[in-house]
């Protein structure tokens, strides 16, 4: 088979370190499993602002639009806190999501048996937790117009953003969530704030209609966003798949991630619509941020980024066996007590660096 | 002193039961502490829809505008799920908040020593937790225009809501939060999503400016809303007072409430601006909902509503001693193992009904 074309955007902070381990695993896949990758690299976020004055260049966008998949590390840091809103590091990430039309963001929150004690929640509440949040990623208040700050005179200003969703935006992300639920526990919970927001009422109505039309075999429930924020704390294992909008998804997926107590373990996938040949544009990135405080010290946990690479194998290339290999190796290594600093609190037998963790996982593979 | 005028809006579900205990405590205050109350009562929510076709009548609004304080039970229930959006039970509550201009919603999340094990979080994470969330309550996406659902033809609809804040809306709620922080741990964390939303950027700028102008003695920090959703799970005791907007406050205060594991314990206050005589319009209500599944069975926990009454004594009438009496009695009763069903899991020596809990608290007073 022809080599798969990847664009690697390592970004800021610990991004380059954790992505270094991904490149080793990609090379291993080429030599041991005959799954070859052509890897191109470019800048995104703060490093791109420094080099090019913008958080992502048009040339990089062109590359992102043509490769088979994009791998992203992390963006941002205090160094760029002062830059103009329009060129802040996050704007690079938002442009990638929007221009690539990556409307479905998949965020699993999974508790590994070896790490169940890392959670701030009681063991019995989180042990065996396995939920998937599907977050709408190209709509809602993140991109709605009008937006901005207006000077009203007399020292008064007004800040505006617009929450907006259409039928087709809701249906396409809900369809992804229904499909994924079918492959898992067959239960989907749709989350909005329909008792206050008309956009949430439309969300509930459209999800309900799609369910009746095409997915009535999936068990569908609805929940208000504030209640969902509570239920994730009270009893997270009640959920299988959750589908929600961009802003609620931002908060609820971070809350769900923290339930596991090990952010350095959590991958994500952002997917577009399939084209005529069934191929989706896709971007894979860890849930954690750029962690500038530990950047360059070999302390970062590369597992979230490696698991993002595994998600890529599964979702973009249908290489389930190879994804299983990586995920299995991660479990093995954790069971043996090998830990980076962020997860050292839970049954560490051996504290290792970013690179040593990569080596341990490669050996387990 | 003249009797204080109260409007009691017991509402739906368990509202009338828990409010019954408040009326007993109010009567006790009259006979034992010479703090007299004239109590008027009216309908709000589903019961008002049934009786009057709207979730709150103009006549009730007139009363709410003239009394010294409003006490609310809870509104809503599945019975009214099908009513039109404009007259749903929640619209009554939202009209009260908006017309009374109750812009500052105070939601304490407090863990009682006797109930620390009720939490789904580990004891050491929540023991001694005492945070106060100040939520903006009359602005943002709850009330912003334009809003609604538009038919675009071809089976497409669009739902819109508007997130909007002005300088003065931000400053007045931040001022309340700064003042409250001064009376507590002197630390305020302001929460928004300024890396994505311009309204959040305005929020941060205005809070920062007010801090410099008038509250530089208070320790101010800023946090993104998604990170706050995480930090509340990871280490909630890092917070003293949190100030945030209407929608973020809705979710974060519910999340914080659930950290305590005992929703039936949590009161809230919603305050307006002081008038020339220093008096604020105010509404007090429990954080929990109307719990239609247990309504009318004497199972409901009246403590949240009794503590809301205590907040009223403190904030509306400066009766700190009387508020302390109620709060102390609640602690006593919990220490003695007296529990309603919702908190029975944690050291219950005696399981009691709504009325018996009220009696126990009255006796402890
Ligand atoms: C960095 C930021 C713009 C982003 C978001 O808000 O979507 C991040 O929090 C995330 O969840 O990926
Ligand atoms: C009932 C509902 C309208 C309300 C809100 O969203 O504000 C409730 O959730 C609350 O927090 O008081």
From TrEMBL, chains A, B:
Its cofactor is Mg(2+); Mn(2+). Catalyzes the oxidation of 3-carboxy-2-hydroxy-4-methylpentanoate (3-isopropylmalate) to 3-carboxy-4-methyl-2-oxopentanoate. The product decarboxylates to 4-methyl-2 oxopentanoate. The record marks 142, 193 as: Important for catalysis. Keywords: Amino-acid biosynthesis, Branched-chain amino acid biosynthesis, Cytoplasm, Leucine biosynthesis, Magnesium, Manganese, Metal-binding, NAD, Oxidoreductase. Gene3D superfamilies: Isopropylmalate Dehydrogenase. It catalyses: (2R,3S)-3-isopropylmalate + NAD(+) = 4-methyl-2-oxopentanoate + CO2 + NADH. Substrate binds at residues 97, 107, 135, 226. Pfam families: Iso_dh. Belongs to the isocitrate and isopropylmalate dehydrogenases family. LeuB type 1 subfamily. It is an enzyme of class 1 (oxidoreductase). It is found in: Cytoplasm. Its main location: cytoplasm. It comes from Inquilinus ginsengisoli. Mg(2+) binds at residues 226, 250, 254. This is 3-isopropylmalate dehydrogenase. Its EC number is 1.1.1.85. GO terms for molecular function: 3-isopropylmalate dehydrogenase activity. Pathway: Amino-acid biosynthesis; L-leucine biosynthesis; L-leucine from 3-methyl-2-oxobutanoate: step 3/4. NAD(+) binds at residues 77-90, 289-301. Residues 5-361 form the Isopropylmalate dehydrogenase-like domain. Homodimer. PANTHER family: 3-ISOPROPYLMALATE DEHYDROGENASE. Binds 1 Mg(2+) or Mn(2+) ion per subunit.
């Amino acid at each position: 088979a022809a080599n798969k074309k990847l664009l690697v955007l390592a970004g800021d902070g610990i991004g380059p370190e954790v992505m270094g381990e991904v490149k080793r695993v990609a090379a291993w896949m080429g030599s041991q499993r005959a799954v070859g990758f052509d890897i191109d690299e470019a800048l995104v976020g703060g490093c791109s602002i420094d080099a090019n004055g913008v958080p992502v260049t048009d040339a990089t966008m062109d590359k992102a639009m043509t490769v088979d998949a994009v791998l992203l590390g992390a963006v941002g840091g205090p160094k760029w806190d002062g830059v103009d809103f329009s060129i802040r590091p996050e704007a690079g990430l938002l442009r990638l999501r929007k221009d690539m039309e990556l409307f479905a963001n998949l965020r699993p929150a999974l508790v590994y048996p070896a790490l169940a004690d890392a959670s701030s929640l009681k063991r019995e509440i989180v042990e065996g937790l396995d939920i998937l949040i599907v977050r709408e990623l190209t709509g809602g208040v993140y991109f709605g117009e009008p937006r901005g700050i207006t000077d009203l005179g007399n020292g008064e200003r007004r800040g505006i953003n617009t929450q907006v969703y259409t039928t087709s935006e809701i249906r396409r992300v809900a369809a992804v969530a229904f499909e994924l639920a079918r492959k898992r526990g067959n239960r989907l919970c749709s989350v909005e704030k329909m008792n206050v927001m008309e956009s949430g009422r439309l969300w509930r109505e459209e999800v309900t209609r799609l369910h009746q039309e095409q997915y009535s075999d999936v068990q569908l429930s609805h929940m208000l966003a504030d209640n969902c924020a509570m239920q994730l704390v009270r009893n997270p294992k009640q959920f299988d798949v959750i589908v929600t909008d961009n802003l609620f998804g931002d908060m609820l997926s971070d809350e769900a991630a923290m339930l596991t107590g090990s952010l350095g373990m959590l991958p994500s996938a952002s997917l577009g619509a399939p084209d005529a040949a069934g191929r989706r544009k896709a971007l894979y990135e860890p849930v954690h941020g750029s962690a500038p405080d530990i950047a360059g010290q070999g302390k970062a946990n590369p597992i979230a980024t490696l698991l993002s690479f595994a998600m890529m194998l599964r979702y973009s290339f249908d290489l389930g066996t190879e994804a299983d290999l990586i995920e299995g190796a991660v479990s093995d290594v954790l069971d043996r007590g090998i830990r980076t600093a962020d997860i050292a609190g839970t049954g560490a037998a051996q504290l290792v660096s970013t690179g040593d963790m990569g080596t341990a996982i490669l050996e387990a593979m």
